[in-house]
Amino acid sequence: MTRGFVHSPSPTRVVFGAGTVAQAAEEVRRLGGSRVLLLARPRHGEKVAAALGDLVVARFDGARMHTPVEVTAQALDVLTSAAADCVVAVGGGSATGLAKALAARTGVPQVILPTTYSGSEVTPILGETENGQKTTRRSPDVLPETVIYDVDLTLDLPVPTTVTSSINAMAHAVEALYAPEANPVVDAIAVQAIRGITHSLPLIVADPSDVDARAELLESAWLAGSCLASVSMGLHHKLCHQLGGQFDLPHAETHTVMLPQVMAYKEKESPEALAKVAEALDVPDAAAAVFDLVTELGGPTSLRELGLPESSLDGIEPASVLHAAWAGTRPDGAPTLSALTAQVLASFDN
Ligand code: NAD
């Protein structure tokens, strides 16, 4: 059957490399900015502040996960009273989310320097939380004008966050493969992102300062974010947003637990898409392989270990996925190696 599609490439300018933080001032000026509000925690903020010099007129370091509207209101006050005409954010998806929330309210241009693999910097999506409810909007108004990827900013990202943030990135690529808006460009980018993540991540867990692997992972995270930018959110992202907003669960960790379970569920509906993931991973069962990868790399596999009581899940569908995610069951139901060993040993007892 002929697959019809519309493809609209992103206008975001992307600068990628090592030491590219040095180009921050030039990129701000390119956007016509001369008064910068810098959104950053102290550690990376100093590096970027030094690169921006006297362009910086104000700083705000209160960005929080899931972009609570009360934090945005505080940052908006700082932006307005400093008469800033450009926002520069350095950090993970939380800092980026705050920059986007300011752009949504004022139209201020954004330059983002990512330090995690969330991919938010290349999407026109903003999720905001108010009274425990996360609402998501998609608008070109929140898409950052410029992204500066500097691999040096990612070298100190702790291994546990590196693992969960990478699986968050992988989720963007996996969901793109079964999205109704998928097209050949998105498919190719998604497969490349999945390959790059699975190749580089174990190398980084073995040696967190491996610059080449960090660069491959950062590049893959950009590709994965680009996938999410081109398609609508699927079941996995919707569930993670609901759980994150309602129970204030950590974003990347929630993605890490949910992804293999949703992949197993989607296998029945979209076998061709899951077959592409399996091919990219070079395994027969993609969902089980992602579960095993997370286990091997020490990531979380259950909502239970994120501290969520099972009763919180009542009424959220699909219940089978959520309860498997709560318990951390290996998705294909096949016994894991250790369970298998236990069974064999038990059979000797009989
Ligand atoms: P985050 O930005 O909260 O960062 C996680 C933790 O890592 C924080 O404590 C942060 O200070 C720390 N950190 C970040 N970079 C570091 C570094 N290089 N070294 C040491 N510590 C570092 O988490 P995240 O997972 O990057 O982003 C989550 C947020 O982004 C959520 O609000 C989520 O909704 C949003 N998000 C949005 C999109 C989108 O397209 N709109 C996509 C993905 C995530």
How would you describe this structure to a colleague?
With 350 residues, the protein is α/β, with parallel strands linked by helices. 52% of the residues lie in helices and 12% in strands. It folds into two domains: 13-154, Rossmann fold (3-Layer(aba) Sandwich); 159-332, Dehydroquinate synthase-like - alpha domain (Dehydroquinate synthase-like, alpha domain). β2 (36-40), α2 (42-52) and β3 (56-60) form a beta-alpha-beta unit. It is globular and about 55 Å long. Nicotinamide-adenine-dinucleotide is lined by residues 41, 65-67, 91-95, 97, 115-116, 118-120, 123, 125-127, 153-154, 156-158, 161, 165, 168, 228, 251-252.
For the largest beta-sheet, the strand count, sense and barrel status come to: 6 strands, parallel
Strands in their spatial order, largest beta sheet? 1-8-5-4-2-3
CATH architecture of the largest domain: Up-down Bundle
Low-confidence stretches: 335-345
Secondary structure layout:
Layout: E1 13-17, H1 24-30, E2 36-40, H2 42-52, E3 56-60, H3 69-81, E4 86-91, H4 93-106, E5 110-114, E6 125-130, E7 133-138, E8 146-150, H5 159-177, H6 184-206, H7 211-230, H8 235-247, H9 251-269, H10 271-281, H11 286-296, H12 319-327, H13 337-349
Parallel strand pairs: 1-8, 2-3, 2-4, 4-5, 5-8
Antiparallel strand pairs: 6-7
Helix pairs in contact: 3-4, 5-6, 5-7, 5-9, 6-7, 6-10, 8-9, 9-10, 9-11, 9-12
The structure holds nicotinamide-adenine-dinucleotide (NAD).
Family: Belongs to the intradiol ring-cleavage dioxygenase family.
Domain Alcohol dehydrogenase iron-type/glycerol dehydrogenase GldA: 11-150
Keywords: Dioxygenase, Iron, Metal-binding, Oxidoreductase
